[in-house]
Amino acid sequence: MKTFKEADILLPGKEVNMEKWSVIACDQFTSEPEYWEEVKKFAGDSPSTLDMILPEVYLEQENHEEQLKNIEASMNKYLREKVFTEYKDAMIYVERTDSVGNVRAGIVGKIDLEQYDYSKKSTSFIRATEATVAERIPARVEIRNNAVVELPHVMLLVDDAGKHVIEPCEQEKEHLPLLYDFDLMMGGGHLCGYLLGKEEKKRIEKALTFLADPKCFADKYHVKDRPVLLFAVGDGNHSLAAAKAYYEQLKAAHPDEDLSEHPARYALVEVVNLHSPALQFEAIHRIVTGVHVEDLLSKMNAALHIKKEGKGQTFYTIYKGKKKKCVIDRPTSKLTVGSLQRFLDSYLAQNGGKIDYIHGEEVVESLAREKDSIGFILPDMGKEELFPTVIHDGALPRKTFSM
Fold first, then answer.
1. What is the pLDDT of residues 71-111, one digit of tens each?
2. What are the φ/ψ torsions at residue 186 (nearest 5 degrees)?
3. Taking a C-beta distance cutoff of 8 angstroms, is the pair 161, 182 a contact?
4. Which helix (H) or strand (E) element contains residue 78?
5. Distance of CA 120 to the CA centre of its chain
6. Which of 82, 177, 205, 255 could form a disulfide with 195 if both were Cys (CB 3.0 to 4.6 A apart)?
């Protein structure tokens, strides 16, 4: 069974300004509309993926139907104007250099959505790493309903300590066709892409087949009779969940049709080695707004038995410009983020308010200065914990980490 396959990949033609074309994922900077306004100014009238996605910062705007029609129109316009060059049955080796010079390597191809299940207790080859928020899926499915191209931002992680899948491509890249080589906008770093040949694709398939062997899997994780987990979704959980949901809707609507070759059965992804030195896990912090903060803190202290010092799950609150340590004496999850998230979900359901997920402590400190707001600073998660935790406990609490 081939879990990771070649795909028909569309890339902008040589005349397109790639720095203006390539934008960050739609679920980033959801509390900073000024970032997306700056992206709009930078892209200007140039062809850009900004025209074909819906940044989630705009999800609550009233012109929803108009947004969807504009996305559909842009996709069809770019196809009509032949903005794209198509690479049939392709895999692309990519190198992403971040803003401080670290290089993260990956391989772009497609996966079969029949081998993916995002439910918490999934036993599929491909599994979610975080709990899926059901209300975040419909808007993405709506876009897919009339989409003629797919623009995913999905990263799958493979636990390849021996570095047999991706890393050998680096030795071959001098002999591979260079497809793109450009700076990313807004200080995002640099990106290169190389078209892989037949021999490299065969080698990748062989290496993945070895990692998917049940005996190899059982020995590595010290488990017996557990279904193999080959890929864990490292980023883009909800984008991949939306692809799965749309495909399942399609199957339900056409129960007698053979959809084995239908494009909706597959999703474009980038596979990255968990053991890449450039791949660092960082905590995703929380900002809660529109609440009676003193009441929230009182009930949190009671529910989680918060202490100021000692051993236990530790996080920090930021309120009225002060940062305070909190130690959970009555955890409800194996992870700090899980215990806190369960409380916040319950509190907000009963009392109202809004939660957002923030990358970077400085941003939390700034947002927490607003009235009726409080920030929560969470600890980093060790990436070596990821696969064993998903294998034993299922998907982690949502927004547990970023990479």
1. 999 999 999 999 999 999 999 999 999 988 999 999 999 99
2. 60, 35
3. no
4. helix 64-80
5. 16
6. 177
